[in-house]
Design goal:
single chain, alpha/beta, Nucleotidyltransferase, domain 5, five-stranded mixed beta sheet, 36% helix, 22% strand
């Protein structure tokens, strides 16, 4: 049982990742969370297992995270979103010192120490205007679904201003812009600009330090990533679209490997080393990403 799994039960999507003994991603799963959180967690875990060709008994440790982490009845441990995102980001980018995690329900900025532990963090104000839910609601009002947000914003010629101080007020602005004939693409891009502005303010509040890593499902929208890279110096690290949603789940799987290592001798034979890179196949094609150094947990 040298495999470990991480499950991220988010407000919009539930994700799972399975790592092998060489810290390679061998299985993944993703579904919409819905209202049956336990079922969503079980479904993505089973999807990841099937992709990896594993039986449930082959997975030696399971850690859950996300707002529904307590609903994963088969977990060995649960950790906060901050911890899982920090470990997942540092797995890909070992020098990470600041993490911005933009999800459907919350936006979180955290500053890490040399041991990849969270030493300071800030959350968005209790308003949907600072989360991915605002983008999804804006898209739905204009007749588009979540999967169309990225392509829609990419066709924008001039973003219209949206204050984003409050989700309710921002929605009123969207209605006003539509009534004045603004293009949906420009309104969508305006909403993304508003979210980027709030993100940068949150990073300033946490006293961001380089390197900065951006994680979360909203980062799959290219216009969002482009704006963040344009406005932050040095430019932040961002994973490809096909893996960026899985960072928190991956962080759980990484922690699971460390916990599992304390139970039994290391799985690697003397003198045997890991490949030094992770091969991820999926929506982004094949991504080869340098493997972060292993590190013992506290």
């Amino acid at each position: 049982m040298t495999y470990t799994a991480g499950i991220d039960v988010g407000s919009t999507y539930t994700k799972a990742v399975i790592l092998d003994q060489y810290d390679r991603i061998v299985g993944r799963g993703l579904v919409r969370t819905g209202f049956r959180l336990a079922e969503a967690a079980r479904q993505v875990f089973d999807e990841a297992r099937k992709e990896a060709g594993l039986a449930e008994a082959d997975v030696g440790y399971v850690i859950s995270t996300g707002y529904g982490r307590f609903q994963v009845g088969f977990r060995d441990l649960q950790v906060t979103d901050l911890t899982s995102a920090a470990r997942g980001a540092a797995f890909f980018f070992p020098k990470t010192r600041t993490v911005l995690d933009i999800g459907g329900q919350t936006m979180k900025a955290s500053r890490l120490d040399e041991a990849r532990k969270v030493k300071a963090f800030r959350l968005n104000d209790k308003c949907a205007a600072g989360t991915g839910a605002f983008l999804e609601k804006t898209a739905r009002y204009m007749g588009f679904d979540t999967g169309e947000i990225g392509a829609l914003a990419a066709t924008s010629h001039q973003a219209v201003p949206i204050s984003g101080v409050c989700a309710v007020f921002a929605e009123s602005e969207v209605i006003n812009h539509l009534s004045q004939g603004a293009a949906p693409a420009d309104i969508m891009q305006g909403a993304i600009v508003s979210l980027v502005d709030r993100s940068i303010q949150l990073l300033k509040r946490v006293q961001m330090e380089p390197e900065i890593a951006l994680v979360g499902g909203i980062l799959r929208f290219e216009s969002m990533v482009a704006l963040m890279r344009e406005r932050l110096t040095p430019p932040p690290n961002v994973l490809p679209e096909g893996i960026v949603q899985y960072v928190a789940a991956l962080g759980c799987a990484v922690l699971g490997r460390q916990r599992l290592a304390t139970r039994r001798p290391a799985a690697l034979s003397p003198g045997q080393a890991a490949t030094g890179e992770i091969v991820v196949t999926g929506e982004c094609g094949e991504c080869r990403i340098p493997e972060a150094p292993r590190q013992n947990v506290e």
